[in-house]
What we know:
Number of domains of chain A: 2
Oligomer: homodimer
CATH class of the largest domain in chain A: Mainly Alpha
Structural class of chain A: mainly alpha
Number of helices of chain A: 7
Amino acid sequence: xxxxxxxxxxxxxxxxxxxxxxxxxxxxxxxxxxxxxxxxxxxxxxxxxxxxxxxxxxxxxxxxxxxxxxxxxxxxxxxxxxxxxxxxxxxxxxxxxxxxxxxxxxxxxxxxxxxxxxxxxxxxxxxxxxxxxxxxxxxxxxxxxxxxxxxxxxxxxxxxxxxxxxxxxxxxxx
Amino acid sequence: xxxxxxxxxxxxxxxxxxxxxxxxxxxxxxxxxxxxxxxxxxxxxxxxxxxxxxxxxxxxxxxxxxxxxxxxxxxxxxxxxxxxxxxxxxxxxxxxxxxxxxxxxxxxxxxxxxxxxxxxxxxxxxxxxxxxxxxxxxxxxxxxxxxxxxxxxxxxxxxxxxxxxxxxxxxxxx
DNA sequence: ATAAACTTTCAAATAATTCTGAAAATTCAG
DNA sequence: CTGAATTTTCAGAATTATTTGAAAGTTTAT
Lengths: 174, 174
């Protein structure tokens, strides 16, 4: 079955919105992002309000949030008073930006907490103490490995990264 | 500063819970998971209710959800009528299980939608049509690459996987 | 079969999040 | 400056998500 652009766009926006809620992002923010991803030209706040049937305040706040995340940019046109907004369309760049921000907001906050928690006072023979310290260590090790891998991804060029993964995954157990 | 076990445990549970909400998981579910992660022995529903000050219904529903996710198992003791629960403590296994489930619940649902959306009717010269189809294609390509990488991770053994990543990231631009 | 022990369900209550829209603030052309 | 155009703010409303707890359901020992 073949769709018209308007219907396909609506579908994409709805799905991207639903998807977003699984990632701690609110539905509207994800929908605005989706709308900008598939719009050829920058849109004004009014365009966004109309196309998604949302209020001015809501549009404003969520656009600001998208700008904070580095996923959307302001665009100004000569002679136009209004601000317009556009989204980065290269998905590899989008993914890297999201990884970068989430790492900053989550992993970088979690690591010091784990360090703190690894100094627990108590009898090493107590199995509850042992389980606690072992689990925290385990998480700490995992997290700092993830930290390194993510840092590399953030800096990586798409082709280099994907090329390496292909090499890695096609070579079986080498 | 050195903490007592009880305090450290409370801190860990609180942080893991806060963390979870960024991942589309509700706070209580993440807290129960945290509690089980640092408990040496399996806990009963009552233990969970008491230690987290939550109701029976809440404990029951969230434990079931954790079981659905494959992160928690029921444990029965001979002669005991009550059910007990325990969590997998190896974080690499936990991460793989989460990847597996999220892939099933998200990526596997998204891919067919993207396929559907890639058949848009319309003038190829229309830049809105072009932007739409290009963006969808871009996302599709990215998603199916991610799909392959995640499948490999799900099957991978920790040492093989980490070993390869280290090789990949220490070799610079080879 | 009975009943105690335990688990599950789910309607209603509560809490958390998101959204609205009008007012305040800002910007800028004239 | 002035005031029209535009953006930002935020208290209250609306919506959505989570939690409670009592009743219903299930299991098992006797």
